[in-house]
Amino acid sequence: MDNLASRLKQWIGSVLILPSLFMWAVWIKSFNAGTNQADRVVIFLSHFPDGTALGLLTGIGLITSISAIVFGATALKKSTLLLRIINMAVIILGSVLTFLNLFQLM
After folding, report:
1. pTM score, whole prediction
2. Which domain does 99 fall in, by range?
3. What's the total number of domains in the chain?
């Protein structure tokens, strides 16, 4: 039962990192497409439903990356070597995305 719970946490952590990765990929695409910061923000927001605010997207990115770190860290204890490598990648990537989101808020 513990092994099943550990695997489930690992997969949940892996899935929770995807929204943050998606938003950063969209931002990189928007950054390369725009000529100034205002254009880049408009291009970035055009990929999401009308009325979506930057604060909401930042919150979603922070919550999902922190949640992925927590789920990945709790699944490390009783994992096989392959799952530990995946969990460590999720933790490192989630940490980087969290710090990027926090620094953009400054």
Report:
1. 0.83
2. 2-104
3. 1
